[in-house]
Amino acid sequence: MLPTKKIFQKIIEGDEVCTVELCRECLLNGYDPMEILEKSMIPAMDKCGVLLTNRKSFIPQVLMSTRAMQAGIDVLKPYLSQQEKKMVTSETVVIGTVKGDIHTIGKTLVSIMLESVGFTVIDLGTNISEKEFIDAVEKYEARFVMMSAMLTTAMMSMRKIVKEINHQAFAWDVTIIVGGAPITQAFAKEIGAVYADNAIDCMDKILKI
Ligand code: B12
Q1: Per the CB 3.0–4.6 Å rule, which of 2, 124, 148, 157 could disulfide with 97?
Q2: Which residues does 54 contact at the CB level (< 8 Å), separation at least 6?
């Protein structure tokens, strides 16, 4: 079995040790880290979602898979740098998962990609309220706010947070970029934010802005 296929399997099994070893092995053998992420690791988390929905797996198993995924990302992180897109920037990005939602992985990937092209990223974590976002924008004089939501129920809180930020009179322009599985282009437009589909798309959009 190809090591990339094994990574997919080991993340589903929640085997952190093997996931880390296999990621290292793939890097040593010249695999593209982005490809490992996109073709093995993210599909493994999607599969976890399917197993969860079908009650073939439960929250404790998904948590173990999350730990394996996170450990694998830590191994790949130094190699995920987008050298060709690197820019000299002093811009700061504030990022967080919105109130009511504790999913971290998508947000973490977006942070890593932005850091890799030169942005300063302030990661507020999960379950973040409008006040916490606004305070951080002011404190760090951030030009960009990124928000993640993975739960349909968290979309309402995203709407409220975006509205509050857009109503603030900051002394500089603030662009809000939103993403996450249930978020669509139409929803983003409706609430007054820019939509990005994934970490790479987000990076491309922010670089254009
Ligand atoms: C892992 C996981 C968990 C873990 C989270 C651990 C952690 N530290 O993150 C645990 C077990 C804790 C968990 C809990 C719950 N979960 Co959950 N979880 C998942 C799972 C399986 C994978 C998510 C993931 O990490 N994917 C991998 C990453 C890379 O993908 P991603 O997050 O989508 O990110 C990509 C894009 O969306 C985008 N993106 C994401 N954020 C952002 C932000 C910006 C700015 C941009 C530009 C892009 C972007 O970029 C990323 C790729 O580059 C999904 C299933 C799925 N297919 O998504 C369910 C899922 C999201 N969970 C679900 C549910 C229901 C829950 C619970 C309510 C379960 C429960 N009964 O308690 C709780 C929620 C608790 C809460 N208040 O948040 C549902 C949501 C359904 C819905 N539409 O509302 C899903 C879809 C599972 C399912 N099929 O039912 N979960």
Answers
A1: 148
A2: none
- Structural domain total, the chain: 2
Query: Which parts of 31-183 fold into alpha helices (H)?
Result: 33-36, 42-53, 59-76, 105-117, 130-140, 154-167
Ligand 1 atom closest to residue 50's alpha carbon, by position in its atom list: 89
Q: Is the CB of 193 under 6 A from ligand 1?
A: no
Residue 85 DSSP code: G
Mean residue pLDDT across the chain: 93
Per-residue pLDDT at 64: 97
Q: What is the distance between the alpha carbons of residues 180 and 103, in angstroms, rounded to a whole number?
A: 10
Residue ranges in the chain whose pLDDT is less than 50: none
CATH of the domain at 54: 1.10.1240.10
